[in-house]
Specification:
The chain has about 110 residues and is mainly alpha-helical. The chain has one domain. Helices cover about 95% and strands about 0% of the residues. The protein has 2 helices and no strands. The longest helix has about 55 residues.
């Protein structure tokens, strides 16, 4: 290996190390944000379940029970859809920069 080849190898290694550090930093922050969102979703779902249970305590008839249950199910389906979209968007927001960083690093070292 010539001196120039060795220098080039060291430079590429340093670039790859910096890229890995940026990737790790992005992934760590993204994972923390994702986990925080999961906790918020769990809290919201738990609150909804308690609200539903409270509503059920005031039900006076079977038809009112089914009405309250159907309304709760509709609301939960809407909420689930919103929560899933939010998590998917967050996951994409995190993975896209990581993907592009990895691709850019491999293109440079090729």
């Amino acid at each position: 290996m010539t001196e120039n080849e060795a220098r080039e190898f060291v430079e590429k290694s340093a670039e790859a190390t910096k890229a890995m550090q940026r990737t790790y930093s992005t992934a760590s922050k993204g994972a923390a944000d994702f986990n925080l969102n999961l906790l918020e979703i769990a809290q919201a779902n738990m609150n909804a379940a308690f609200d539903f249970a409270r509503q059920l305590t005031s039900v006076k008839s079977p038809s009112e029970f089914f009405e309250v249950s159907a309304a709760h199910a509709r609301k939960q389906l809407e909420t689930f859809t919103e929560q899933t979209q939010r998590l998917a968007t967050l996951a994409q927001k995190v993975t896209t920069p990581i993907q592009s960083e990895v691709v850019k690093t491999f293109k440079k070292s090729a």
